[in-house]
Amino acid sequence: MGYRFAARFNGENNHVHLLVNYPPKVAVARLVNSLKGVSSRRLRQEFPDLARHYYRANKLWSGSYFAGSVGGAPLSVVKQYIEQQNRPA
């Protein structure tokens, strides 16, 4: 399943913020699982030492997530909010 989105990405040590535009027929849970799976594989390939930090749970991301709609807010405000977050360590 491929998603096209203009990414806005930022976060903190224990979470990230993503602004995603995706097809309305796609379930949020399916989108999140896809994003977590692909990003986990790519991060582990690019940073092999991650496996050493997460060997007990053997997973990079937690099973939980929060999704919210920003239909009423101007995208410029949401993008600015995300950009003002700290980059994950």
Helix fraction? 25-40%
Straight-line N-to-C gap = 29 Å
How are the strands of the largest sheet arranged? 1-2
Q: How many strand segments?
A: 2
List keywords for this structure.
89 residues, alpha+beta, Alpha-Beta Plaits, two-stranded antiparallel sheet, 3 helices, globular
Describe the structure.
The chain is an alpha+beta fold and 89 residues long. The chain has a single domain, classed as Transposase IS200-like (Alpha-Beta Plaits, 2-Layer Sandwich), CATH 3.30.70.1290. The chain is 36% helix and 11% strand. The protein contains 3 helices and 2 strands; from the N terminus they run ββααα. Strands 1-2 form a two-stranded antiparallel ribbon. The termini are far apart. The model has no long low-confidence stretch (mean pLDDT 76).
Set down the secondary structure blueprint:
Blueprint: E1 8-12, E2 15-19, H1 28-46, H2 50-53, H3 75-83
Antiparallel strand pairs: 1-2
Concise summary:
The chain has helices at 28-46, 50-53, 75-83; strands spanning 8-12, 15-19. The chain is of the alpha+beta class and 89 residues long.
